[in-house]
Amino acid sequence: VEVNGDVTTLQLTSLLSQTEYDVAVTPMYDEGPAAPMLGTAITDVVPAPKNLQFSEVTQTSFRATWEHGAPDVALYRISWTKKGENNFKNVS
């Protein structure tokens, strides 16, 4: 990305969560490029889903709904078990 010489900040977008990035900022002069300033940054962990709710409750089923924690989530693994037990069932 190229920006005007008076710009000193830039929001980098469309990055992946929990990913390390190397960044180089290279000043460009009429005579050509100068030595770049190098840095490393790591994007944050994907936040957990939000607003878990249950509806359409019957004697044998219910619907679970939630809001995305982040747009780059590849999938959700849904697990359930009777309260107090540890034999989880899964669906992906």
Automatic annotation (TrEMBL):
Q: Which InterPro entries match?
A: ECM_Regulatory_Proteins, FN3_dom, FN3_sf, Ig-like_fold
Give start and end of each Fibronectin type-III domain.
Answer: 1-48
TM region(s), chain numbering: none
Superkingdom classification of source = Eukaryota
Is Glycoprotein included in the keywords of this UniProt record? yes
Q: Which controlled-vocabulary keywords does the entry list?
A: Cell adhesion, Disulfide bond, Glycoprotein, Repeat
Q: Which PANTHER family match?
A: FIBRONECTIN (PTHR46708:SF8), TENASCIN (PTHR46708)
The name on file for this protein is: Fibronectin type-III domain-containing protein
Q: Which organism is it from?
A: Ilyodon furcidens
Phylogenetic lineage: Eukaryota, Metazoa, Chordata, Craniata, Vertebrata
